[in-house]
Amino acid sequence: MRDFDYKKSLGQNFLIDNNIIKKISESFVVNSDDLIIEIGPGSGALTKELIKKGCNVICFEIDTRLKDKLSLIESNNLNIVYEDFLKVDLKEWTKGYKRLFFVGNLPYYITTAIINKIVSESNPYEIVIMIQKEVAERFMASPNSRNYGSLSVFLQYNFDITKVCNVSKNCFNPIPKVDSIVLKLTKNKKEQANNENQFYKLIKDAFSQKRKNLRNNLKCYDLDKINSILNTFNKDLSKRAEQITVSEFVKISNELN
Questions:
Q1: pLDDT of residue 38
Q2: Among 141, 136, 125, 122, residue whose Cα is nearest residue 164
Q3: Nearest-CA neighbor of 55 among 125, 151, 150?
Q4: Where does a domain end: 160, 187, 214?
Q5: Bridge partners, 78 (sequence order)
Q6: CA gyration radius for the chain?
């Protein structure tokens, strides 16, 4: 947009590539009784595609300076709310909908906070997000890789993660310093932890000091029991957290009950 003072503090890099916009919109299928929540619509380029999908669309935009631009998008199934997404009551806004779809171009510095809010305050069916390439690689990382960490385990426990497309930094205005990736996170039906709070604490503790092994990071747990469980995977407490799969973390957590 011309004559717009983009705020770096808000991570404002607006997507201007129509091909990428269409790829995002076409990456998920909704029914008329579903709800799409767009986080940070910016100038509304993606919003215009989302409203064509036929279900209700709610956009949360923190920057009220965009009202004039976004008010030009007229649709009976669109509701634009000028509030900070991290502060809204998601449970109230999502009441009565069968499936929830979250879409957005997320600033690096609040990506994890937004994902945590979505998971803790709602039951998302799918999340389609554009994030910095290096963050996306952490989301998708496999065990025994440098990028595999507690965030990888947390997300892969909750979702099946697929790459929609790569996005060049030249697809934005203003142009950011790095390239991005669009990911689709679909709620999975894999093996579940009996106590999710305990499971989340376990993975956080296991990765607390990434260069140390499980024996050091899990000192406050029943190490004999954990070692016995690890032995069933042909592993032991000398392994680091990055060598443990999501499924193995689930089994360890369940056996600790």
A1: 97
A2: 136
A3: 125
A4: 187
A5: 57
A6: 20
213: CATH: 1.10.8.100
How far is residue 81's CA from residue 211's CA, in Å, rounded to a whole number? 44
Length of the chain in terms of residues written: 257
Reading the block at residue 58, the tokens are 């709610």
Chunk the chain into consecutive blocks of 10 residues (it has 257) and report each block's average pLDDT, rounded to whole numbers.
52 78 95 96 92 96 88 94 95 94 89 92 95 93 95 95 93 82 90 92 94 94 95 96 96 91
Most distant pair of Cα atoms in the chain: their distance: 64
Range of the domain at 207: 196-255
Total structural domains in the chain? Answer: 2
